[in-house]
């Protein structure tokens, strides 16, 4: 990789390793995040997402590997790295005993902003995150979504170029989750780089330019949501019949279909495109058969996630496999 490539990367990590005792959590992972994009690290519980965030944000040291964050070496220039990043973890930095505004002013102090500048930034961020009305109330009275917004607002006091959001919407209701997604999109359109960990596949699908799936200590897949979806087969059209005679005739006409004689359904491999759907309908018309229901299934990130995280992780993924 040339120097220019490295400069344009907000995060460039290679061979990161971390073990606790004889448990290898990260077994040599590479992460490259271009500036101004959203990168999402996905993985089941305990996969090591928080560990990766903690390493990249200088909270803990890796056992091996290197990383440059905002152009600074993680090990040799930890202070410069810290100055360039913001971290919002699973455990909020919000102090419930003081007001939202006081939490913000405290952050401004920590970042050595002048009194005047601290007040200006606080007012601006509280307004941006729709917290002006609640600013003078103790943060303990805030809803989950408000606390999460305050947490991110506090992170932004230091104007970080890169922010790490560790499961930013876990436990939020759908409306608050959508508000958070909007906030993240606005941050990125303003040039911030976002490193996001999530257990919600839809969240990664909605927000991330690139997604990496972490499992068994390794990145098992890496790409855009579309690229990842292409990794798994499973796109199909399903036809359901109420009449067993129509079902039998359709099964004879559509030789590639997989039969389910109990449910009277036929499953035909398909990419879900208009062309392929039309072909199926044309076959049915030609044979003068009418299906009672037609549904299209295209692989989604769930399929990718379950396919990629199926075996090496014990109990949890087995449950998911059986559930499907
Ligand atoms: N300080 C520690 N000492 C020992 N083991 C640890 C420590 N921190 C993390 N682990 C273990 O490392 C593994 C990865 O943990 P980590 O919190 O990074 O996973 P995660 O992907 O963030 O999971 P979750 O989604 O549940 O937060 C887990 O098995 C955890 O028990």
Strand content bin: 25-35%
> Which structural class should the secondary elements be placed in?
alpha/beta
Widest sheet, order of strands: 6-7-8-3-9-10
Cα separation of the termini: 42 Å
Question: From the structure provided, what is the oligomeric state, counting identical versus distinct chains?
Answer: single chain
Can you tell me the CATH architecture of the largest domain?
3-Layer(aba) Sandwich
Mean pLDDT score, rounded?
87
How many domains is the backbone divided into? 2
Number of helices: 13
CATH T-level fold name of the largest domain: Rossmann fold
Tertiary shape: elongated
SSE pattern: HEEEHEEHEHHHEHEHEEHEHEEHEHH
Q: How many E-type strands?
A: 14
Small molecules bound = adenosine-5'-triphosphate
Question: Which runs of at least 5 residues are low in confidence (pLDDT < 50)?
Answer: 1-6, 312-324
CATH superfamily of the largest domain: P-loop containing nucleotide triphosphate hydrolases
Q: Could you describe the largest sheet, including whether it forms a barrel?
A: 6 strands, mixed
């Amino acid at each position: 990789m040339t120097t220019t490539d490295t400069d344009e990367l907000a995060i460039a990590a290679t061979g990161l390793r971390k073990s606790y005792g004889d448990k290898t959590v990260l077994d040599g992972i590479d992460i490259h995040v271009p500036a101004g994009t959203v990168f999402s690290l996905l993985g089941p519980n305990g996969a090591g997402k928080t560990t990766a965030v903690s390493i990249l944000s200088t909270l803990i040291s890796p056992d091996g590997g290197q990383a440059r964050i905002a152009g600074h070496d993680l090990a040799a220039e930890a202070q410069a790295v810290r100055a360039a990043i913001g971290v919002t973890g699973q455990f909020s930095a919000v102090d419930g005993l003081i007001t939202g505004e006081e939490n913000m002013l405290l952050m401004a102090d920590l970042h050595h902003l002048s009194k005047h500048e601290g007040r200006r930034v606080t007012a601006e961020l509280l307004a941006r995150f729709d917290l002006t009305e609640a600013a003078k109330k103790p943060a303990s009275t805030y809803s989950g979504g408000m606390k999460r917004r305050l947490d991110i607002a506090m992170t932004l006091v230091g104007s970080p170029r890169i922010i790490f959001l560790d499961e930013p919407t876990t436990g939020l209701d759908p409306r608050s989750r959508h508000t958070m997604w909007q906030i993240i999109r606005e941050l990125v359109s303003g040039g911030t780089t976002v490193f996001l960990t999530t257990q919600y596949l839809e969240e990664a699908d909605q927000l991330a330019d690139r997604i990496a799936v972490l499992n068994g200590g390794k990145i098992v897949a890496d790409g855009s949501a579309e690229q990842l979806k292409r990794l798994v087969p499973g796109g199909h059209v399903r036809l359901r019949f109420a009449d067993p005679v129509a079902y039998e005739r359709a099964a004879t006409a559509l030789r590639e279909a997989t039969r389910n004689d109990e449910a009277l359904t036929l499953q035909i491999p398909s990419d879900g495109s208009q062309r392929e759907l039309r072909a199926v309908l044309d076959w049915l018309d030609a044979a003068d058969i009418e299906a009672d229901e037609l549904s299209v299934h295209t692989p989604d990130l769930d399929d990718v996630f379950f396919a990629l995280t199926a075996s090496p992780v014990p109990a949890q993924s087995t449950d998911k496999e059986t559930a499907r």
